[in-house]
C-alpha cells in the first residue's frame, strides 16, 4: 500500500492582503474580511476614532467587537480644545482557513463631534 505524501501548504499571495473601511463621521464602522479557503492568515488591525471637543465635560468612547465578542472598550475625556483628540486600538488576530473575520467598532461622543472613524487590517 502506497502512502500519499502530505499536501503542500497553500502558497502565500504575491502581495499581503490589506483591508480598510473609512466610516467618516459615522458612529459605527464594520470591516468584514472574507474567508480564504486554503490558508490561515494573520492580521495587524488598527481601529481609530478622531473627535473634536465642543464644550466642557466632553467625552468619547470606543468599543471593538470581533466576531460578535467584546475585544476592547474604553471611554475618556475629550482633551485639546480647538484641536482634535483620538482613540486608537491595535491588536493581532489569526484567521483560520475557511473562516471570515468581522470587526465592528461602535463609538459614543458627548459634547464632542466625531470627525473620523476607520478600521485597517494588514496581513502580517
Folded structure, characterized:
The protein is 0% helix and 60% strand. The chain has no helices and eight strands. The strands form two sheets. Strands 1-8-3-6 form a four-stranded antiparallel β-sheet, with no helix packed on it. A four-stranded antiparallel β-sheet has the order 2-7-4-5, with no helix packed on it. The termini are far apart. The chain has 124 residues and is mainly β. The mean pLDDT is 94. The radius of gyration is 19 Å and the shape is elongated. It has one domain: Jelly Rolls (Sandwich).
What does this entry show, briefly?
This protein is mostly beta strands and 124 residues long.
Strands side by side in the biggest sheet: 1-8-3-6
How would you sum up the global shape? elongated
Beta-strand percent range: over 45%
Termini, distance in Å?
A: 41 Å
Question: How large is the radius of gyration?
Answer: 19 Å
The assigned structural class equals: mainly beta
State the low-pLDDT regions, or none: none
- Number of helices, where a helix is a run of at least 4 consecutive DSSP H or I residues: 0
Under the CATH scheme, which class?
A: Mainly Beta
Q: What share of residues is helical?
A: under 10%
SSE series: EEEEEEEE
CATH architecture: Sandwich
What are the key terms here?
single chain; 124 residues; mainly beta; Jelly Rolls; four-stranded antiparallel β-sheet; 8 strands; 0% helix; 60% strand
Amino acid at each position: 500500500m502506497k502512502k500519499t505524501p502530505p499536501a503542500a501548504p497553500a502558497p502565500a499571495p504575491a502581495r499581503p492582503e490589506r483591508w480598510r473601511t473609512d466610516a467618516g463621521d459615522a458612529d459605527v464602522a464594520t470591516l468584514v474580511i472574507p474567508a480564504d479557503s486554503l490558508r490561515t492568515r494573520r492580521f495587524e488591525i488598527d481601529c481609530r476614532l478622531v473627535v473634536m471637543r465642543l464644550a466642557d465635560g466632553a467625552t468619547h468612547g470606543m468599543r471593538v467587537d470581533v466576531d460578535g465578542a467584546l475585544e476592547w472598550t474604553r471611554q475618556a475625556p475629550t482633551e485639546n480644545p480647538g484641536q482634535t483628540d483620538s482613540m486608537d486600538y491595535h491588536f493581532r488576530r489569526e484567521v483560520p482557513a475557511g473562516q471570515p473575520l468581522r470587526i465592528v467598532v461602535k463609538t459614543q461622543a458627548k459634547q464632542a463631534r466625531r470627525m473620523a472613524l476607520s478600521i485597517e487590517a494588514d496581513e502580517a
